[in-house]
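User: DUF2975 domain-containing protein. Structure?
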Amino acid sequence: MKLGWSRTDSNALTGLLGLAFAIEGLLGVLIPALHIAGLIGARATREVGVTDLAQPLAASGGLTGSGGMTGGGVMTLSAAESATLTVADPSLGQRVLLDLPALFNAVPILLGLYLLFLVARTLSTGDPFEPRNPRRIFGISILIVIGSLGDGLLTALTNHFLVVGTPLEEHVPFSWHISFLPLGVAAVVAALAQAFRVGVRLREDTEGLV
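Assistant: Predicted structure:
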């Protein structure tokens, strides 16, 4: 039940995971937060699906009324089926909507990297069948599902709230796309967690016979 895995291998893997965690924290959390705060150039574009758009449209405002957020820069919409929504000088509310999907995506990625880091640390002993590893791996599969489904839903919601109350609204339908590839990956990871669970049980049974 032992692996030919040295401490150097473990240190290299955990170092790479730590670097990935830092990069994702920078790109997925810090930069979007700075965009929202207006401390660096705001994110101003979003790819959206459109219908019945023969020529570019422009509109101002959005999110007026019961939403509690007002105004903002002029938005333009151009293309045929897939369009680029551009917000000139976005308001705070629009900056939140533009960067919220990126912030959301960063959370399951960071948590997944942390769980993978914990699993990698157990490899330094050459024994991956640490009792907590099956739960950690299964947790990664759950995070993949949350990230996949939540990303599409949150993108659809923020697209809607960006254009609601403007002439662009009728051309940007509420559309939630689900990708089945990440769900398939999550199923494979869940199966791997079950394999680790069996390995833990076999190790415990073997140790009980000694």
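The two ends are 14 Å apart (CA to CA). Residues 63-70 have pLDDT under 50 and may be disordered.
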